[in-house]
Amino acid sequence: MENQLTIVVPIYNEVESIEQFTLEMDKYLEKTKVHSTVLFVNDGSNDGSQALIETIVSGNEKYEFIELQKNGGLSGAIKAGIDHCTTNLVGYIDSDIQTTPVDFLKYFEFFPEFDMVNGIRQNRKDTVVKKLSSKIANSFRRAMINDGIEDTGCPLKIMKTEYAKRVPFFDGMHRFLPALIQLQGGKVKQVPVQHFPRFAGTAKYHLFNRIKRPFFDTFAFRWMKSRYINYSIKNKS
What we know:
- By secondary structure, this protein is of the alpha/beta class.
- The chain has a single domain, classed as Spore Coat Polysaccharide Biosynthesis Protein SpsA, Chain A (Alpha-Beta Complex), CATH 3.90.550.10.
- It has helices at 18-31, 49-57, 74-83, 128-145, 161-164, 177-183, 207-227; strands spanning 4-11, 35-42, 63-67, 89-93, 116-121, 156-160, 188-193.
- Strands 3-2-1-4-6-5-7 form a seven-stranded mixed sheet.
- α1 links the parallel β1 and β2 (35-42).
């Protein structure tokens, strides 16, 4: 089957970045040979993001949107995008342009052998707080669940939709997407990707939030993993 991709883009008060993000996404759309659709998921923004999204989508068949009733967090926005995906592949990228959609072009050679491709951000241009919190959280997660994923928080992922739709939904799910694919028996490929300074706006979390939530979520994942049921059908009528 020919690959088709839906790229989920969660939006929460990113009005300053959306236009530039769209320019960067257009570069990918012009180069890719894989039929791709960009799905903005407005996670309850109140800064004018929705009006800008509607302007972009109007008259452009490559872009679509869904607007959530209220802000539910990154995991909820990603899950909503996955639920509305009808293509055989589903991707995810943030709108802050710290990663480039053009790097998605590297991913397609690894399908169908792998079930997910996850980026590893090179030469990260984050603040000291983000770098430190990410390093602590990634080290703790790897020690506790042994998933072998170097950069689970990299916002540049593509998954087979059949696997993505089976991912258990919980707050904090986005931190464990590679491990949740592995939990189903899926294979994850990791590839280096570019990283850039944040284009505009500010991060929504401080050091305490970035460490506390992944800490508790890791224990929740370990509990779920120990009780996870995975089945396959041998035959049916």
